[in-house]
């Protein structure tokens, strides 16, 4: 697989002290990579540096092997879909889409064909004559997507493009973007703060925190094996329990769990709610008391107060909760735990 | 009477009364003006003239200096509008987009020309114009008109440029437009309603300006308002009425055109200083 986009040691600091440091990332041709993190983590800084709207302090950005870091946005082989205020309200949909092609001096026939094709791709065929003001938010964002697509960029940049839309539409757009990516084979870099969106869309996710990369990996990998406590907190639902590592085991109350990382001293054990099992109270297992149980359609969410004073949430099949009563003492076991060293920082959040 | 109050409601009745007072207050003088302009003879207690006549129209339109003053006024207004567009639009863009020290101070400085009694300002400018040899010149008149409109011509377009979001300009850069092309194809057309309104204001303001012109332009540059003053003082009020209508017509036409271009709140947003 050839590398389409390569970011090397990218750093950019603002006067406020925010910014990014030492960003390294290679994106393969046809890959969809998501930059994920809370606001202020630097993901947009990276994206805008790729698009040419920010000049990095140091580092290099190469697209198809060519350094673009000195080029202005109009000279870069990238296009960007912005979060909002995307379209030019005084131009029709056709004129909005044709603008970039006109600058490239394409013939009228070529432009007409490209515009019609792009509008078909975003499922708005025949919308050429409409003005942006006559379209809904979702349709406007589709037109913006079409405008960026039809220039066939080497890398398509998307800056939280769906965050202004309502939840249902966001879901639809996600699926459509995936389809468009499959059809066009475009390389995409997608910025979002929505971990669910990142998990659903991406070939790979770059989790960012405080201007640095925390973890790069496939969605399943990041979900199953978060590289840091930060990633564990940010991706998916997770229980955190205070424990102690001793030799081969990590002890949480009376429960013992494996210690593959060979940690020592106080640790935090992270457990996904779906990995929590509930059984009969047992002297050799972590014990707890059922605090609450809610059936949510196809599954049930059960909260258990543990002997160590924490609360563990568990997702169980809804049939399994029938035998459970509030206040009942149970034994808790975990199908899988991931332990992180206990640092001062980790008590927060 | 009571049933009427109950079915319509006090609120609606008060609204109606206010509206009527308003209409009389605004339209009354205009109506009176129109009647006066077409009257031949009209004495006090009568509601309408004894005699209708077009004689004051032919009188006004046949006076040679009047026809001249009309074309001069329009020429000056056009020059003033053109020059202030050239000067103020780039300034407005800078105020909207570029950060520089004392920006607010500079923006407010345009208010200064409106902060003092006009006559005092004009007299001190006239002193300066004497030294520069600008008295009784076209340039002098144009300059004194422009002092009045700098504020409109900068503030309203500044607001208009601010309403063009950075992302809209960036998207244009992104698809390949040079900064100049972005300004020409995106920023300027989007700010055009605001610029058009400011230009209409400027044009009308110049058309109506009398004090400064009187001081700087006399004797060679007699614009419409100047000639009107002399007609009002030398001839019956009907002549003045005819002239007022001639002077009001372009104002009405341009304001109606401006209203089609933009809504009132866009107009008002021109006066927000952020």
TrEMBL record, chain A:
Cited Gene3D superfamilies: 2.40.50.100, P-loop containing nucleotide triphosphate hydrolases
- ABC transporter domain mapped to chain residues: 5-235
Can you tell which superkingdom this protein's organism belongs to?
A: Bacteria
Would the keyword Nucleotide-binding be found if you checked this record's keyword annotation? yes
Keyword annotations from UniProtKB, A to Z: ATP-binding, Nucleotide-binding, Transport
- Quote the Pfam families the UniProt record gives: ABC_tran, TOBE_2
| Entry keyword annotation includes Transport | yes
EC number(s) given by UniProt: 7.6.2.9
Q: PROSITE patterns recorded for this chain?
A: ABC_TRANSPORTER_1, ABC_TRANSPORTER_2
What is the catalytic activity of this protein? a quaternary ammonium(out) + ATP + H2O = a quaternary ammonium(in) + ADP + phosphate + H(+)
Q: Which PANTHER family match?
A: SPERMIDINE/PUTRESCINE IMPORT ATP-BINDING PROTEIN POTA (PTHR42781), SPERMIDINE_PUTRESCINE IMPORT ATP-BINDING PROTEIN POTA (PTHR42781:SF4)
Task: Report quaternary structure and partners.
Answer: The complex is composed of two ATP-binding proteins (OpuCA), two transmembrane proteins (OpuCB and OpuCD) and a solute-binding protein (OpuCC).
- What name is this protein filed under? Carnitine transport ATP-binding protein OpuCA
From TrEMBL, chain B:
Its placement in the membrane is given as: Multi-pass membrane protein
> Could you tell me which residue ranges the ABC transmembrane type-1 domain spans?
70-258
Keyword presence, Cell cycle = no
Please give the biological process terms from Gene Ontology that the record holds: transmembrane transport
Under PROSITE patterns, the record lists: ABC_TM1
Q: Which UniProt keywords apply?
A: Cell inner membrane, Cell membrane, Membrane, Transmembrane, Transmembrane helix, Transport
The protein's name: ABC transporter permease subunit
> Which species is listed as the source?
Cohnella zeiphila
Q: What lineage is on file?
A: Bacteria, Bacillati, Bacillota, Bacilli, Bacillales
